[in-house]
Amino acid sequence: MHTKASLARDIANCQLCAGLLPDPPKPILQLGFGAPILIAGQAPGRLTRVKGLAFDDASGDRLRAWLGVTRAQFYNPALFSILPMGFCYPGAGQSGDLAPRPECAAHWRRQVLAQHESLALTLIIGQYAQQWHLHTQANLTDTVKNWRAFWPTSLPLPHPSPRNNRWLKANPWFSQQVLPPLQARVKQLLGKQLSGG
Ligand code: SF4
Predict the structure, then answer these.
(1) What kind of fold does domain 4-194 have according to CATH?
(2) Nearest atom within ligand 1 for CA of residue 107
(3) Which of 5, 33, 35, 161 fits as disulfide partner to 59, beta carbons 3.0 to 4.6 Å?
């Protein structure tokens, strides 16, 4: 049985996918075992691997705007835990990045989540995370449209990447109907945490 410290150390040293990734393994996540909000994403991209910081890009800027939080709040592990489905950059395919390595969720995800003590909201970004967390095979648009079925403990989101601008434009209900309650809930949860309540 892992302790929190041994889990963090063993993930940092994980070599399970060595030889299956384009580079040596480099897990990029933010372990916030006491955070109220979990961001369940896909996998780091190539630039994120270089920078070593999750969502330190245009996608992250949009995600923070959706949540209504500052960078300092976002990168505070007392507030946010950030766990992609694959912790390491999986490499590029013909149309975007490859899928997260399946070994990662199979080996790490349940034990990492079991160490989270006070999750109140899980933001589930993209199809791979939605399949795992929500046990759905529906496509992303249908899953996000059905967001009320998972609210208020979970919320499926599209990826905030600029590559999704067309999706966001075609689905204006997302900004109109989903973001206001999301921002109110994040504010409530962070307020509780920041005031120690
Ligand atoms: S993707 Fe996950 S399982 Fe694979 S090497 Fe990286 S941390 Fe380990």
Answers:
(1) Uracil-DNA Glycosylase, subunit E (3.40.470)
(2) 3
(3) 161
Atom 2 in ligand 1: residue holding the nearest Cα: 104
Residue spans of the domains in the chain: they are 4-194
The dihedrals phi and psi of 32, each to the nearest 5 degrees, come to -120, 80
Residue whose structure tokens are 């500052």 = 70
Residue bearing the CA closest to ligand 1, atom 1: 88
Contact 197, 120 (CB under 8 A): no
